[in-house]
Design goal:
- By secondary structure, the protein is of the alpha/beta class.
- It contains 4 helices and 4 strands, in the order βαβαβαβα.
- Strands 2-1-3-4 form a 4-stranded parallel sheet, sandwiched between helices.
- Helix 1 packs parallel to helix 4.
Amino acid sequence: MQGANKGSASALNGSGLRIGIVQARFNQGITDALVQACRQELLALGVTEDHIEHVQVAGALEIPLALQAMADTDRFDALVALGCVIRGETYHFELVCNESAAGVTRVGLDHHIPIANAILTTENLSQAVSRQEDKGRDAAQVAVEMARLLRSLETA
């Protein structure tokens, strides 16, 4: 039964869902493309423009706090984290990647809200550019699918 609702029309029906997006401004060219792809996919899945709330933060480490503030409102069915961390010459890359991912996971579990984590972690700019559109679309699909799944489990 694993994956039974993946790809089904009802699992990807965003009609009536409220989605919050948190975008990191660091590496903004990449994160702007992530947001654009995510928003376009959310709209294609039936989420209306007025049910999408988009906020920006400085970088990946600030994303979890903004997600937490959004989750605290109880207005959203799912959230999306969009950012880009490109490896540099120091340990800072690992710190930012690990801590931002842990924070995103913690918010989702603490608030019982699905969060699509599309904080790209790449070796270089070329890898980030090649992933920006697909990962933005994927994040939208994951947010809608997980919101529908949680709703179905809560009413079962």
